Structure formats: structure tokens, C-alpha cells
Amino acid sequence: MTLLETTVHIGRAEPRLEARDKVTGHARYAVDHPIPGACHAWPVPAGFARGRITAVETEAALALDGVLAVIWHANAPRLEPGDDPNLLVLQSPEVSYYGQIIALVVATTPERAREGAEAVTVRADVSPPDSALRADHPGLYEPEIVNAGYRGRLDRGDFEAGYAASAVRVDATYRTPTEHHVAMEPHATTAFWERGRLDVFDATQASSTVRETLAALFGLAPQLVRVHNEHVGGGFGSKGMARPNTVLAALAARCVGRPVKLALPRSMVFALGGYRTPTIQRVRLGADSTGRLLAIGHDSISQTSRLTEFAEQCAVVSRVHYAPPNLTTSHRVVALDVPPPTWMRAPGECPGSFALESAIDELAVAGGWDPVRLRIGNDTDRDAEGRPFSSRHLVECLREGASRFGWADRDPRPAAVRDGRWLLGTGVAAASFPAITWPSTATARATADEHFEVAVNAADIGTGARTVLRQIAADALGCDEMCVEIRVGDSAIGYATVAGGSMGTSSWGWAVTKACRMLRERIDREHGGEVPPEGVAVTADTTADIAAREEYARHAFGAQFCAVRVDPETGEVRLDRMLGVFAGGRIVNPTTARSQLIGGMTMGVSMALLEQTVLDARSGAFVTADLAAYHVAVNADIPRIDVTFVPETDPHLNPMGSKGLGELGIVGAAAAVANAVHHATGVRCRSLPITPALLLPAVPG
Fold it and tell me: Which residues of 524-534 are buried (b: 16+ CB within 10 A; e: fewer)?
């Protein structure tokens, strides 16, 4: 076997391996697999947010031809208690949020299952819900730990003294609404039991996690559960763990003794698929007469459900972007009669950066400072906890972006530039996201026909994971990419971490690199460089490697620049152009990396101008539960987005030197748009989305 000493696969722009299958319809998603004898399930959701079921009348549904079963809490198989009460489906008469599943109809066709669900009558004792987030809610509390293991409160120095001593101060409150992921593929599952084993095809970002969860719920050894997720149609965090649909499908398949397919209709995804919690964030900034930050105060309020605690870590971003001598950051949460919120693209950093980076812009205006120079002047080499950054090139991103964007030609005065009837404005914001790496395993096998098979339980949720993993494997093996076959999306491969937290490439890639290097060494050491007829295989685990790393603050950084136009007569905001400059370590594949960042930036523009889930506080229901009422950005909304990379080397990450990019693109994007709207109009929008109704009363004619 011929193995090269060096290769250059990492860093090359490569097309996606699965592109043809996707555009031709050959790629199979969770409910596309042809399973003989499969039937279909349709949920019955609660039409109230708080109450107790007293009766479920199933006779009319069971009388329909083709209906096989109606499952509810009185006849459902018992599940083992677990860490997530939201997964204990059909186990109790208690209802904790609008849309919670209270029954499931299984039938021979999806149409008959839906008809059966509509025939089920539910009776309940209902109480008025408490479902509105407000800053003065008496139930607010301060958790010790918030999402991702961060301390809920972090203080440094004396904030009040630093703030009082500041020559220029900002004190403002910012609000972000409930937002939903609305991935193209809804939450969906195919499940079947065979000889005591459970097989599941699931729309999940984490088949290893789902396997462990299902095993625990059904009282099985993990090796008796297998979860497949070869293709996943998007997730953005909503599919990062087991969801109710997965458990329902497995439970129904056990009840009827046949494979069951369950694809949630879009309206039910809004209640059952998770969402980004609304936030209320107060940011206080203080600076001296030169613009040097003396104090940052960032206090965040968000909601969680009564079933599980989910504390969005919004104020954490203020511990990273800048490092004033005086800092206070805190989080408060209130449990309401609402569905459980969950991870959504850049949880914490995304809504937190809207508040912080809007406030930084307000500080620049108040002090008469250039917003780019103000950020550069407050750069730091350590985070708020005193840890050095493994690498940090935020200043380079800001400078490169300002040069490419033409920032020097900007008239700093608000509402000063017009193009016909349009008011023109530009804005900027900083971005950061943790460079996370979690333990994973991978197996590499060499065959006698000079080919390699590399298996890692990654989830390709549309990011091009297969493609970059093959590049990484080919580099580690020292062979041509065409000699490498990548297998992903199967819990039977072995444990691998979630496709989330922008940690996929760094985590899976490390395991793949280690396995491929071990394989190459074994071939050389034990077989004289030749693969024996039976082949050679090795499995690598990065748990010990990751634990042995030195402590650094590891983050990717970027700068967002935005130009907008605003019609003063209608309040319409239009994006003209957007530029993102990012330092994301070594870029494995510029094509897929650029695609990820453009997607994140587009989602940030959508957050700024369009996205908002409306909840009816009287019923606790999301009333914008479809893509007609929940607006997302489309091609006409995004005329021009450009992405460029700042070269970066970081020896403290992983063998590839890569950082995550999937979530970095959304961080700061909404703030850049809001800052550009202020520059265009002189109107400061502290609540999202920025709508004509918000602008019209204040925009100059």
C-alpha cells in the first residue's frame, strides 16, 4: 500500500459527498425508510396549558377502519423515570403546557391515524395558565449554574464603583422574542422492535445520546438499542437530544407489535421541538473619557418550563468580548406553563450579543467614538475569569472587515445619508463562540485492496460533515481521498458527541485523526507497510487526550458589518449588503465553512427583522405555529452576503487546529442590523424583530 508522507486535503474546497443523493431524492430521512408492515401514528395534543385529564374517550376512534390503537396514560406501557420529565410521554394525567401529547392514535395509514386523532375526545379540569415572561414576575430565581455549565453569576472588581466613576454611561434594556428553529425536516421517527431489540431511524443530531436515553426509558441494555440518522434535514439545536416523538414512536411500536412511523406536523413542532426562550436583558456600560471600558453590567431574564429547567446563558458573552476591571453578570429564570425551551443556534451568545453589541454601539454614540475603534481599543488577551485565550484575532477581524466594507467612508451622523426616499445606514458588531471539543470514538480499517473505511457516529445535519471528515481522514492516512469511505449516522459505530455547539468537526475530526494515525502506525510496525488479506482495524477514543489539555479560554471570533436602507414612509427595512470576517482556526473546507457562516448570518438577519413566535398568554398557545405566520428570511430578503477568513493558527485546540463555525455566523448579526438601522434613522430599536410598527412612529420623514 502506498502512503504519502504529506497531503493537502485539509484546506481544499471540496463539494459535498452526499450532494447528488440529496438533489435526486435518494437520500433517506427518518420516515423515508421502507420498513415492511409499517403503520403510522398521529398525536393528540392538549388544547390547554395547565390542567389534569379526567377522561379520554376512544370509542369513536377505535371504530374507524384501520385504527389499530389509541394509547393514553391509562393504557400506555410504563417508562422508567429519567432526567427529562418531558420524555415521560403518556405516563400521567397532568398537563404542563399547551400542545403536550395526551394520546396517540396508531393506524394503517397516516390519513386514518389523523382522522382517528380528531375523533378522540378529551375531558379535563383546566386552570388558567401563567405563561407570560415579565421582569417583575414573583417567581424569578437565580440558578447557580446555567446552560453549558457556566456559573449563573460572575462578578469581578466593584461594578457599582466603576460605573459611578465612568465619564460616559449607558443603561438600557433589550428584549428578544421567542424564536423557533423550523428546520426543513420536522421531528420524525421510525421505530420497530425485533426479538427484544429496538431499532430507530430518527431525525436527531445525537444518535449516541438518543440510544442511551431510549435504553434508560425502556429499561434496556444500551446494546439492545440502535439509532440510525444517516441524513438529517436540519436541526439548529432542536434535535440535539431525544424528543417526545422518538419515545412515542418506540412506545407505539411496542404496543401494536409493528413498526411505527411518526412525523410531527409543523404545527406540533412548535410545541414539541423546543424553542429559543424570550429574554429581557439589562446592560449597563461605563467608560472613561477616552473610551476605555471601566464597567460592564449584564443581567438576563428568561423563562423555562415547569417540567425541566433550561437557563439560557445570555450574559456569558459579556465575559468574553471585553474585560473591564469591573464586571457583574447574572441570570434569572422563571418557570412558567410553557413548553420546555431548548438549545437554538448559538444559545446564549446569540441573544446576549444583541444586547451587548447594541449597548456598545450606544456607548460609541454617547461618547462620540467610532464603533470599530471603540471595540478595538477594548480588546483583551484574557476572559473575565483570567484565563488566557488560546488564540484571539478579533482586532484583525474588525480591521479587515472595516477595510473591505469601506467603513472609513462612513458619515457617523445618524439619518444623514439618503438614496432617493431611502435612509441609508451601516452597523458593526463583534462575534464570538466557544471552540468546544468533546470526547468521541472512531474506527479506521484498511482493506487489502488499498482502501480505507473510517466510521464515526457523526450526524450530518446539512453541514457537510461527511465531506470534511473524509478530508481529515485522508490527511491523517496520507492517501488520496478517493481511497477513503466515510460512514456516519449509526449509534452502533460507537460513541460520538452531538452535532451541536459547533463542536462536530473538532470532536469527530480528532477521533478520526487519532484512529487513522494509529492505523497507519500499526500497518508500518506490525505488517511492514503492507495490509494483510484479512485487513487491519483500530478504534480510537479521545477522552484522555481532551482531559489532558491545558486550560485556555478557547473561542472563535468574528466581526459583522451591515448596510441597510429604511423607507421612512412605510418603515420597511431592507438589507443592502453584509460582510462577515471570521477567525475560526484552520479552515478544513472553505466551501462548507463559508456555507455555514452565510447560513448563520442569514438566520441573524431573519432574527433582526422577521422572526417572532407569538404566544397567547390567555391560553398558553403559540399562535404563529406555521410557516405562513412565523416569518423567516428568504432569497429576496438577503441580496448580498460575503464571508472572508482571517488566517489563524491555534496549537491548543485539536490535531487539525480547527474551530467550530456553524454558530459563530449568527452571533452579532442581529446587533449589526439594529445598529445599522439606528445609523440610518436615529431610532434605537431595543426589541426584536425590528418591524415597521416599531419604526414608523419615530422615523424622520
Answer: eeeeeeebeee
Strand partners, 286: 169, 295
3-state SS of 218-250?
CCCCHHHEEEECCCCCCCCCCCCCCCHHHHHHH
- Percentages helix, strand, coil for the chain (3-state, rounded to 5) are 30, 25, 45
Q: How far is CA 175 from each of CA 67, 132, 283, rounded to the nearest angstrom?
A: 47, 14, 11
**Cell numbers representing residue 295 in the block:** 464597567
Question: How confident is residue 339, by pLDDT bands cut at 50, 70 and 90?
Answer: very high
Rounded to the nearest angstrom, the gap between the alpha carbon of residue 657 and the centroid of all alpha carbons in its chain is: 22
Which three cell numbers mark 120? 378522540
Cα three-residue angle 332-137-274, rounded to 5 degrees:
60
Bridge partners of 72, per DSSP, are: 103
Nearest to 229 by CA among 456, 559, 567: 456
For 377-436, the pLDDT digits (tens) are 999 999 999 999 999 999 999 999 999 999 999 999 999 999 999 999 999 999 999 999
Determine the Cα–Cα distance for residues 311 and 692; give it in Å rounded to an integer. 31
H-only helix segments in 42-183: 59-62, 110-119, 159-164
The rounded distance, in Å, linking the Cα atoms of 427 and 674 is: 7
Q: How many residues does the chain have?
A: 701
Is residue 376 within 8 Å of residue 315, measured between CB atoms?
A: no
Active site annotation includes 450: no
Catalytic option among 185, 357, 400, 663: 663
Domains and CATH numbers, the chain: 19-28+437-547 (3.30.365.10), 39-128+184-234+239-272 (3.30.365.10), 145-179+276-435+554-695 (3.30.365.10)
